[in-house]
Amino acid sequence: MDCYTANWNPLGDSAFYRKYELYSMDWDLKEELRDCLVAAAPYGGPIALLRNPGRKEKPASARPVLEIYSASGVPLASLLWKSGPMVSLGWSAEEELLCVQEDGVVLVYGLHGDFRRHFSMGNEVLQNRVLDARIFHTEFGSGVAILTGAHRFTLSANVGDLKLRRMPEVPGLQSAPSCWTTMCQDRVAHILLAVGPDLYLLDHAACSAVTPPGLAPGVSSFLQMAVSFTYRHLALFTDTGYIWMGTASLKEKLCEFNCNIRAPPKQMVWCSRPRSKERAVVVAWERRLMVVGDASESIQFVLDEDSYLVPELDGVRIFSRSTHEFLHEVPVASEEIFKIASMAPGALLLEAQKEYEKESQKADEYLREIQELGQLPQAVQQCIEAAGHEHWPDMQKSLLRAASFGKCFLDRFPPDNFVRMCQDLRVLNAIRDYHIGIPLTYSQYKQLTIQVLLDRLVLRRLYPLAIQICEYLRLPEVQGVSRILAHWACYKVQQKDVSDEDVARAINQKLGDTPGVSYSDIAARAYGCGRTELSIKLLEYEPRSGEQVPLLLKMKRSKLALSKAIESGDTDLVFTVLLHLKNELNRGDFFMTLRNQPMALSLYRQFCKHQELETLKDLYNQDDNHQELGSFHVRASYAAEERIEGRVAALQTAADAFYKAKNEFAAKATEDQMRLLRLQRRLEDELGGRFLDLSVHDTVTTLILSGQNKRAEQLARDFRIPDKRLWWLKLTALADMEDWEELEKFSKSKKSPIGYLPFVEICMKQHNKYEAKKYASRVGPEQKVKALLLVGDVAQAADVAIEHRNEAEMSLVLSHCTGATDGATADKIQRARAQAQKK
């Protein structure tokens, strides 16, 4: 353990810092880092280098080269920079490379050098050019801050939702500030800049002068400033060699350190660990690295090569041409276990396990000592926690073996933490591999979450590893394997050296019916890559027609989209395609397409009946559907025409169509309607009143009510109304008029074809029993009883029923006998029944 702490460096009495190698860099850098624009993404992210930016000694024809490497130095992309002069590079939270040009245009590239998009920081930036730029991260996303040649700042807090903010002007600023940085306070991005001995804080509303509390006197300039990873703390390097450290709000001073070096540092970054009370700043010059904090002494390292610092959540990454290292505060659990002469429970348990492997009795002595103090659960937990913070697998295994050994002597120690740590370390060791090159620490991994890590593996096209991690951690398919396979398929369709058939088959064989995978999304990516035929083949595997059809329409495969919509049975989907086709094709081609799809034609006709009547007529004409065309003209004659001449003309067209359809009944009926309309117009002209749009029956009835009996009879003859119907119409009309005298004359005009029972019924309906009795005597024998009962003559009805010896009639009379008044009649019927039964 003494050897293990050889690289521990104390900072004061309460903290140790260690620096260990992550990778031996194998990249072939032909130039020093100082001659390149450098950007490294946090959380073990990639490194971008732009070689030769603005190098005057290079030939004018030599273009800069933008190269992207993994954190282990494995090349990911390389491209000649053919755009404008570059000012700054930076990585977004989604690991997209943001390249800020001198003209204020920001170009966005993917991890593999694929161009994504671009945006401008505004006309003012374009006019005044960019002097300096910063890429920063907030809880809302990744932002860009620009310092223009007019010494004004422009800022966007989220490049995903670009909203430019022109920051207030700094009074009296005639030259570029000596240093500046971005900060995020109260969910708002600010800019802190130094002008000589003064500090200014810019927000969206005002420019405020600020003063760090407790700053050493004699400061005439600030040479460097740094904000912590979480934007909670601020460090200022002054021209007097002092480093002031305090809160980012500039309300509280944490400490101040005199480094006795007045030369401006190349870089200054914070090095702190989550939930640690220790605060330290790492300062880098050409060949010296210094770690300073709340202590009188500092930690110093000699830099053999030009190096670059990358601030992280729990430390600082340091890379050069040959190595990539990590500097951080030693975690509490590791310090307690490994520091010299430690008697912490975790240290004793680790020793006990080692002695146990040697089959030494000292293992029992160490174990008893821990158990006597009741600290065995704490010891196990310390070993588990320390294992998570170790980079080397051998030390991880040693600590986990000690934890497993201690667990054996505990009755109810929950295994969850131990199992989870084993899983997490296996994942971390896999991604830390040189060929993968993502050197995440345990704290960074927990902050990043497994879902974001999987996204980053997908961005690097490390699909097999991502799937293995999902299966190992048993993540739900929709969140894990399915999502990764969908990304793999979207990448697969971009391989243009493979045929459409082979790509579609490979994707289907790999994906099958995997839940959560949308073939339509993959097909959309294929279409976006210009592979329309591949997109169509992939859509064949999409089970949801609602996802197939919109993309087919977008690809201008409307006829295929119509077939798919019809197969789905979704009428709304069919209507969507039909309306798209109508706008896309000329009228003739559209109708021909509909003729080949009967279901679509039927639905479109329904649509036209409510929305486009003229189109419906054209459809019938093209199909020579004379029957429907005739019906259309009949409806149109009433819906669209108000003048009688227009109606008659439309009906004549309808009649001609019916004749062509060989529907003589419909044709004759239409002609009769035309005759009726002309007659009704003549009646209105001669008699006044309203006759138009009445039926033949209603017209006859209206004439009778108007006293025009002869006209009514003539109309009945003209339209061949049967006598029975005419008598009913006249009977009803005269009764409604209560013209009883005319009704009696009418009944005697000739023998009634409908009998006289209807006369009785109509009179009783009008509550006229007197008139009803006149016609009851004229009713035939078979309906006599019913007529007598209608007028209330129960006794005579009984006599007629007895005379007819009809059981049904006698039962009908009995049902009308009520109370004592009809008692004699009921007895008479009963006696008649009895006599009939004797015979």
TrEMBL record:
GO terms for molecular function: actin binding. The keyword Coiled coil applies. It is a peripheral membrane protein. One of its GO terms (biological process) is vacuole fusion, non-autophagic. Residues 517-835 form the Vps16 C-terminal domain. Its main location: membrane. It comes from Lipotes vexillifer. Core component of at least two putative endosomal tethering complexes, the homotypic fusion and vacuole protein sorting (HOPS) complex and the class C core vacuole/endosome tethering (CORVET) complex. Their common core is composed of the class C Vps proteins VPS11, VPS16, VPS18 and VPS33A, which in HOPS further associates with VPS39 and VPS41 and in CORVET with VPS8 and TGFBRAP1. Interacts with RAB5C. Interacts with STX17, MON1B. Associates with adapter protein complex 3 (AP-3) and clathrin:AP-3 complexes. It holds the Pfam family Vps16_C. It comes from the Eukaryota. Keywords: Coiled coil, Endosome, Lysosome, Membrane, Protein transport, Transport. GO terms for cellular component: CORVET complex; early endosome; HOPS complex; late endosome membrane; lysosomal membrane. The keyword Lyase does not apply. This is Vacuolar protein sorting-associated protein 16 homolog. Belongs to the VPS16 family. Residues 4-420 form the Vps16 N-terminal domain. It is found in: Late endosome membrane; Lysosome membrane. Residues 349-376 form a coiled coil. Plays a role in vesicle-mediated protein trafficking to lysosomal compartments including the endocytic membrane transport and autophagic pathways. Believed to act as a core component of the putative HOPS and CORVET endosomal tethering complexes.
